[in-house]
Write a structure and sequence with these properties.
Order of helices and strands: HEHEHHHHHH
Structural class: mainly alpha
Largest sheet: 2 strands, antiparallel
Distance between the termini: 106 Å
Number of strands: 2
Shape: flat
Length: about 210
Amino acid sequence: MGFAHNNVLHDNHFRKDWQRRVRTWFDQPGRKLRRRQARQAKASTLGVRPLSLLRPAVRAQTIRYNRKVREGRGFTLSELKEAGIGRKEAQSIGIVVDHRRTNLSEEGKKVNVERLREYKARLIVFPRKAGKPKKGDSTGDDLTAATTRSPIAIPDVYVHEAPRKITSEEREAKAFRTLRDARSTARYAGIRKVRAAKKEEEEAAKKK
């Protein structure tokens, strides 16, 4: 490296022993196996608990992705109330609660209420003391029933239609014109209401 003119000399450190300070990751496969074994040991000690917490089925955000249905953060208080599950009870049996979320449609609420009811029907709560079951604990044949740890799948809310021919009414319909008319009606609804009220007042005044 050459230097010319009256410039500041470089202070580059080219003689550091960097090979000794490199962070290697050669133990990654061993760590992966160790984590997996730890998960299996933890699952065996927990018994027949579900593999994951129950979460609601919600629509993805924005117009681009709102056709997709995915797992949300937690169930709303109104969904829990309609399914007959208390807030504290829900948290104790593996149901996630989100007090900030609100329901924007009856269809979405119905889907999640059915999801909660299905989960509650499948749920087996083992009593801490076999001779003294508390309120909400399973008893009798439920304790000897076959158990599963598989989570409840997200429902397919899309209604699939069989292919058919386009009708003459659908062919003649003008979607753009319909949308513009609806927009105009909503936009001038207030003004037209005021005009109609004013006209009625004038007609009533004339009759007097």
